[in-house]
Structure formats: structure tokens, C-alpha cells
Amino acid sequence: MVLDAIRQAALAAYKKDLTLRSEVVPENFEEFTSKVDPITGEISIFDGDKNVTPPGFARIAASIAKQVIMQKLNEAERGAILTEYESKVGTVISGSIQRQEGNTYFIDLGRAEGILPPSEQVHNEIYSQNQRLKFLVKEIREGGRGSEVVVSRSDPQLVKALFALEVPEIQSGAVEIKIIAREAGSRSKIAATSTQEGVDPVGSLVGQKGVRVQAVMGELGEEKIDIINYSDDPARFIAAALSPAKDIQVRLNEKDNVATVIVPQTQLSLAIGKGGQNVRLAAKLTGWRIDIEGAEEPEEVKESKEPKELEESKVEEKSEKAEAVEAAGEGTGEKKEEPVSAPAQAVPADDKQKAEKAIEEEVKEAKENATTDQEKEEAQKAGEVLEKAVEEENPQKEEQNLEEAIGESKDTKETVEENLESKGQSESKPDEQSK
Questions:
Q1: CATH assignment of 233-296?
Q2: What are the backbone angles phi and psi of residue 22, rounded to the nearest 5°?
Q3: Which has more pLDDT, 350 or 293?
Q4: Could you give the 3-state DSSP secondary structure of residue 7?
Q5: pTM of the entire structure?
Q6: What is the pLDDT of residues 168-197, one digit of tens each?
Q7: In the chain, where does the domain assigned CATH 2.40.50.140 lie?
Q8: What pLDDT shows up at residue 222?
Q9: CA geometry: angle at 97 spanning 95 and 100, to 5°?
């Protein structure tokens, strides 16, 4: 094959040499032949039986022979390499980022150079020079530079191939990955089944303490992976595909290939997923269009909520009354914290009468001790609030609040009197000094 290439190259060189010397190319040039001496390597041009080799053609022939031999050797080596990588299509291979041209990365695979086009890249991965990663050999295709090895980081089969490296049960055929749905860089769902009795497909892929699945996630940049059991029953398969949501009911419309899924309200967000990702991957995995509906709450749950609402309303009423008591007890402009007391209990009629009488006396005493109209009004308001509270709540607590309010007003009065006396004494001292 190499000798044939040399003969053809010698004829082409002879034709070019005639043109450079401004000689006419013979009309029967296609009938010219070239011969190579296998012992000496001498190249000769013949027109039939006549040797028409020009003088000095040996130098040109030697250069041509060298070029042709190197070209054929490179082509043979490239062909052997491509044949080797054709057998590796669909498998995982390690490589390092060599260089970047535009959005395309060139990968050093060892004996060959791979190409990582934008369509096979993961959108949230950042590639740097000399970074070492694992790639899926996707195909061998013809490009502008000849045959090219195309590698991928986003193909779903990369996940399957990585699990095949980590899980011996896949290599032995005991576990099989049926379907993979992937959103590269974010999340993947895998449906696996067992061909051998007693082998758990999910447990085999996860590994002890999750060591196997974590190794795969580490190669994929911490991409989340959900693993479920494959089932020939579409309803069961769809319910499993929507995990981590539970308590799912599935109704199938085989004519339109639509599955209506009823999910409890508490599981609705889990079934849909962030941005609808969970249900979207489940639809890819099962091949069904999935419509999710929230289940109605049982009547028992609704009834159990009603007592809670009543309790909350009672708590709000009590807090409003406590605020009113605090407002009535503002003698010095500062709020006192209400002491913690036992829950209010029902009060007998005699106790209510005694409490009302005691409140009247306290209010009367507070009015007599009040020095300003504002203090009288506050005492009157406090009495009205406590009289109303006697009918609904514990009067003992309200009497205590009233005594505190009256005590604060007395303290305020004493403080005012002391201030007046100190002011009078300070005014009298300068008069004595002037005298």
C-alpha cells in the first residue's frame, strides 16, 4: 500500500516538474507509469517501455517518498486509535482538559484527543485547564479535521456507566438499571430491577452507608440521585417515581397516556418538587403525563381544627383584658408586668357581690386620694374595667391589679409632695442669705 502511494505521488511530482520547466504535458500522461526499485529505492517514470525520467528527479522522488511514508504511517496510526475508541463507545474514560476554542473544549484522552462540544457540557460546571474528569465516550464522527472522538458530561448514560464501575452486581448481571431520567448538574432519577432472587436493587446501588451512590455523586459534582424500584405496573411505578412523596393514589387513562395522581396536602410540595422538577423527572422516567391533585382533608381533621380555633380566640380575649388592666395601672408612666396567676375559675354569686362592693370602696378611696382630675378619671376607668371583669373572669386577680394601680397613684402623690417641699426649701435659703 505504501509503494502504491509512492508511485502515484511520483507521477504527480513529474507532472508538476514539467509545468515548472514550461514543458508541455503529454496527452497520454494518464498512461505513464512509475516504478520503484525495492532494493535501491530508485524511482523511474516510463512512457510505455521508454524511460522518461528527467535529470535530477531522484532528489524530488526521495522527498516525495518521505512525505508519503509519513502520511501513511500517521493515517494508519490514527485509524488504529479510532478503531480502539470505537470499541469504547458508551463507556467511561478519564481525561484532562487540554485547551479551549470558543465554547468547545479539547480533552487529552492519552493516545487520542477528544472533543467536548457545548451540547455535551453541564451548564453549572466550570472547566479549567489540566482539570481531570471522567467522560462518556459518546461517538466517533467525521469533522473538519477528520474523525473525532466526541465525549460527554451531560448524557444520562454517564450515570449508568459510573454505577457500573462502582457496583459489582451490575457487572455480574444481578442488578440492572432500566431507565434513567436526568437533568444534568441538578438531579437524576434511576429505576433499577433485580434479576436474581434475594438481591435488593436499591440497596445494591446505594451501598453500605451510601458509599457507592456518594462516589457517583462526587464524580458528577454533587448531583442528587434518586433510586427507585422498577415495576411493570404503571400505577405502582408512577407512585414510586414521585418519591419522596408518600400516600399517593394513581388513576390511569391509558387511552391518552395520562396519570392523575392524588396526593395529601402535606405531601403536595414534595411530589411537585422545586420548580416542578420532581414531577418533571417522574414523567420522563415513566413515560406518562402526570397531573397532580391535592386530596381533600378528612372531616375528622377539620373537626379537630375547630377546638384549636376556639382556644386561640379565648387567648386573644384574655390578652386584650390584660392590656386594659395594664393601661389602668399606669400611675408613673411605666408599665408593670402582670404577675403570673392560676387560670380563672367560675366564681359563686356571693363572692361576686363581695368583690363588687370591695371594688366600689377601693374606687371611692382612690378618688379621695387623687389630687388631679386625670387621676380621678383613671381611677374611675379602672373601676369600670374591673367591674366588667368580675362578671367574666377571676375577681381576685382584678382586685390585686386595682390595688397595684391605686398604690402607684399614691406613690406618685407622695413623690409630687416631696418635690414641692424640696423646692420650697431651696427658695427660702437664698432669702436668708440676702438678709
A1: 3.30.300.20
A2: 60, 35
A3: 293
A4: helix
A5: 0.57
A6: 999 999 999 999 999 999 999 999 999 988
A7: 88-152
A8: 79
A9: 145
